[in-house]
Write a structure and sequence with these properties.
This protein has helices at about 20-25, 40-50, 75-85; strands spanning about 10, 15-20, 25-35, 55-60, 65-75, 95-100. It is α+β, with helices and mostly antiparallel strands. The strands form 2 sheets. The chain has a 4-stranded antiparallel sheet with strand order 4-5-3-6, with helices on one face. It is globular and about 45 Å long.
Length: about 110
């Protein structure tokens, strides 16, 4: 078993960085569903994924509720742009500050 601090990632530019620098990036996600019924959250996940197939979707379970969050935004303004488009289409649209995945390639919000 490898220790977490020993894991490294080689980036496209040749730089090698510790995994924790990538995983611990702070940014914004939008919570679009919060319910104790997993099927309700799964339906919201499917609806969102059909609307925005390139944006990450994350389901967390903290008894007794499931939380569905979307996106990996570095700037609050970017999260707000999507939040405005989602308003009224989902049960909730709250911007949440927390860990996010590092940016991949530019994702345009339609």
């Amino acid at each position: 078993v490898k220790e977490k601090e020993n894991l490294k990632v080689k980036k496209n530019d040749g730089k090698v960085i510790p995994v924790e620098e990538i995983i611990s990036k702070t940014g914004y996600r939008i919570q679009i569903c919060f319910d104790s019924d997993k099927s309700v959250v799964e339906k919201a996940r499917e609806k969102f994924s059909n609307m925005y197939p390139t944006i990450g979707v994350y389901i967390n379970f903290e008894p007794p509720h499931y939380s569905l969050k979307v996106g990996d935004f570095q700037k609050r303004e970017s999260a707000l742009a999507l939040k405005d488009k989602l308003f009224g289409k989902f049960k909730t649209t709250n911007i949440i500050l927390g860990p996010v995945n590092p940016p991949q390639k530019s994702t345009k919000i339609k």
